[in-house]
Automatic annotation (TrEMBL):
This is Adenosylmethionine-8-amino-7-oxononanoate aminotransferase. The keyword Cell inner membrane does not apply. Homodimer. Coiled coil: none annotated. The record marks 34 as: Participates in the substrate recognition with KAPA and in a stacking interaction with the adenine ring of SAM. One of its GO terms (biological process) is biotin biosynthetic process. Pathway: Cofactor biosynthesis; biotin biosynthesis; 7,8-diaminononanoate from 8-amino-7-oxononanoate (SAM route): step 1/1. It catalyses: (8S)-8-amino-7-oxononanoate + S-adenosyl-L-methionine = S-adenosyl-4-methylsulfanyl-2-oxobutanoate + (7R,8S)-7,8-diammoniononanoate. InterPro entries: Aminotrans_3, BioA, PyrdxlP-dep_Trfase, PyrdxlP-dep_Trfase_major, PyrdxlP-dep_Trfase_small. Belongs to the class-III pyridoxal-phosphate-dependent aminotransferase family. BioA subfamily. GO terms for cellular component: cytoplasm. Its main location: cytoplasm. Its EC number is 2.6.1.62.
Length: 467
C-alpha cells in the first residue's frame, strides 16, 4: 500500500473525524521518528491537541495517561502553570540571543544552580539542544582535552553492552543497540567503541547478587583497561539504568568501581544522565546513589543532561565538567579552545523552563514526595510482579520495568500489540521488545497511581493471553 491508500483504508467512516483528518495530513507530510512508517497501516497515529497534567487529549476528545512522560522528558505534567508562567515572562524579555560573545541571566543562573547541585565539582556547563548533541560534546571534549594535555594517543572510547547514547554518528558509535546501529555500521567503523560487559543485574549467575554482577562487570572493564588504557580517552555509561536497551538496572557499586578504575588508568568518566537524571532514579543525579569506599560522593568528569531538565518543554541539553578539563582548553591559541557550537546553544526560553523546573524541585520537595509515590505504585503493581508470565520485575526511583515471558515469535509484535491495547485503556505505554516499563511524570495523584497499575495489569493480561 502507498501512503495514500493507507490513509484511505484508515478512513473507515464517510465523514472523517478531526483525528482522522489530522492523521491523514500527518501521514502525507510528516516523517515520524523511530518509526517504520508502514506500521501505521495497522497501528494508529494519535493526533494530540492538548495536554493537562499527566494526560494527553486527542482531536476527538479521547484522553491518554502519559505513562512514559512523552519519551521520558515530562516531569511535572503538560501545560504546567508554573513553567508556563516563567516562559510567558521570558517571551516578553528575550527569546534568543547567540551565546558566543553574549550571555544572559537564565543561562548564567542555570549553570550556577546545576553546578551547586554537584557541590561545584562540575563547575562549567556547555549547552546544546538534544541529548545526542550533549553526548557528542562530551566525547569531543574528552578527546580534545587529552590532545591539549599532550596525550594524543588517547583516541578510543568504551561503552557498555546494550548502551544507548543517541542517534547522531558519534553517539551511535558508543551505542550498542543493533536495531539502531547496524544499518550505519560502515559509517561508524572508524570510531567504533570498545563494548564491555554490562552490569545488568539480570545477568546474575546462580547465587550471585546484583552487586556481584557489578563487580564482575568492573573486572571485565579492568581487563580492557590493562591492555588499552593508554589509548582510551573515556568510558561512557548510563548510571544505574540503561534505559533504551530495556531498563537494564545495576547496583550502584558499579559506579564506585568504574570511578576508581578510571582514576587508576587515567581515563575520563562520562555519566550520561540524559534519561536517568533530574530525579528519575530517586536522587537528582543518579550517581548520587553511589559512594567511594571511603564514603565520598562519586562525580564523573562529564555529566550529560537533557530530557527532563526543561520539564519536557523545550529542547535543551548540556554537558557539565570539571575545572581541570576547562583549564586544558584555556589558552591564547584559538585552536586549543573548544570551538563546538549550535545555533540555539543556551536558548533563554529553554533555560527559563529549566529554572522553573528546578524551582518546582525545591518548592515541592519533589525527591521526597516521589519516594512516597514510588512506594504506592510498587505496591499497586504487586499483582503484576507476581504474574506467572512476568520475569525480572524491577524498580529504581520513578522507573518500573518487567519482562513478559512469551515465545520469540510473539515477542516480535508484543510492543505494538501492547501499545494499541494500552490506548484502548487510555494509557500511553510503549514496551521495548518484551520489556514493559513505566516512567510517569512526577505529578500523579493517588488515584492515578492506582489506576496506572491496574490498567497496565489489564493490558498485560489481555496481550499476553493472545501471545
Ligand atoms: C541515555 C540517553 N542518552 C542519549 C539520548 C539521546 O537523546 P536525544 O533523543 O534527545 O538525542 C537518549 C534518548 O533516549 C538517552 O536515553
Amino acid at each position: 500500500m502507498n501512503s495514500k491508500e493507507i490513509i484511505e483504508s484508515n478512513l473507515n467512516t464517510s465523514t472523517p473525524t478531526n483525528s482522522q483528518q489530522l492523521m491523514q495530513r500527518s501521514l502525507q507530510s510528516v516523517w515520524h521518528p523511530c518509526t517504520q512508517m508502514q506500521h501505521h497501516e495497522s497501528v494508529p497515529l494519535i493526533p494530540v491537541t492538548h495536554g493537562r497534567g499527566a494526560w494527553l487529549y486527542d482531536a476527538d476528545g479521547k484522553r491518554y495517561l502519559d505513562a512514559i512522560s512523552s519519551w521520558w522528558v515530562n516531569l511535572f505534567g503538560h501545560a504546567n502553570p508554573r513553567i508556563n508562567a516563567a516562559l510567558k515572562d521570558q517571551l516578553d524579555k528575550l527569546e534568543h540571543a547567540m551565546l558566543a560573545g553574549f550571555t544572559h541571566e537564565p543561562v548564567i543562573q542555570l549553570s550556577e544552580r546545576l553546578s551547586a547541585l554537584t557541590g561545584n565539582v562540575l563547575g562549567h556547563c556547555f549547552y546544546a539542544s538534544d541529548g545526542a548533541s550533549a553526548v557528542e560534546i562530551a566525547l569531543k571534549m574528552s578527546f580534545h582535552a587529552w590532545r591539549n594535555l599532550g596525550h594524543s594517543s588517547k583516541q578510543e572510547f568504551v561503552c557498555l553492552q546494550g548502551s544507548y547514547h543517541g542517534e547522531t554518528i558519534g553517539a551511535l558509535a558508543v551505542t550498542d543497540v543493533s536495531l539502531f546501529r547496524d544499518a550505519y555500521g560502515p559509517m561508524l567503523s572508524a570510531n567504533r567503541a570498545h563494548v564491555v560487559m554490562s552490569p545488568d543485574a539480570r545477568g546474575a549467575q546462580k547465587g550471585e547478587t546484583a552487586a556481584d554482577v557489578a563487580l564482575r562487570a568492573a573486572h571485565a572493564l579492568e581487563m580492557l583497561l590493562q591492555q588499552r588504557g593508554s589509548h582510551i580517552a573515556a568510558l561512557i555509561i548510563e548510571p544505574l539504568v540503561q534505559c533504551a536497551t530495556g531498563m537494564a538496572m545495576h547496583d550502584p557499586v558499579y559506579l564506585a568501581e568504574v570511578r576508581a578504575l578510571c582514576d587508576r588508568y587515567q581515563i575520563h568518566l562520562i555519566f550520561d544522565e540524559i534519561a536517568v537524571g533530574c530525579g528519575r532514579t530517586g536522587t537528582f543525579f543518579a550517581s548520587e546513589q553511589a559512594a567511594s569506599s571511603d564514603g565520598q560522593a562519586i562525580w564523573p568528569d562529564f555529566v550529560c543532561l537533557s530530557k527532563g531538565i526543561s520539564g519536557g518543554y523545550l529542547p535543551l541539553s548540556l554537558v557539565m565538567t570539571r575545572d581541570e578539563i576547562y583549564q586544558a582548553f584555556y589558552d591564547t591559541d584559538v585552536r586549543r579552545g573548544f570551538l563546538h557550537s549550535h545555533s540555539y546553544t543556551g536558548n533563554p526560553l529553554a533555560c527559563r523552563a529549566a529554572l522553573a523546573t528546578l524551582d518546582i524541585f525545591d518548592q515541592d520537595d519533589v525527591l521526597n514526595a516521589n519516594r512516597r509515590k514510588a512506594q504506592r505504585i510498587t505496591a499497586a503493581l504487586q499483582p503484576l510482579a507476581q504474574h506467572q508470565q512476568v520475569q525480572h520485575f524491577r524498580q529504581r526511583g520513578m522507573i518500573w520495568a518487567f519482562d513478559g515471558v512469551m515465545s520469540d515469535a510473539a515477542a516480535t509484535t508484543f510492543s505494538r500489540r501492547f501499545f494499541s491495547k494500552a490506548l484502548e485503556h487510555e494509557l500511553l505505554l510503549r514496551p521495548i521488545g518484551r520489556t514493559v516499563y513505566l516512567m510517569p511524570p512526577y505529578i500523579l495523584d493517588d488515584a492515578e497511581c492506582d489506576d496506572l497499575a491496574a490498567r497496565t495489569a489489564a493490558v498485560f493480561e489481555s496481550v499476553i493471553d493472545n501471545a
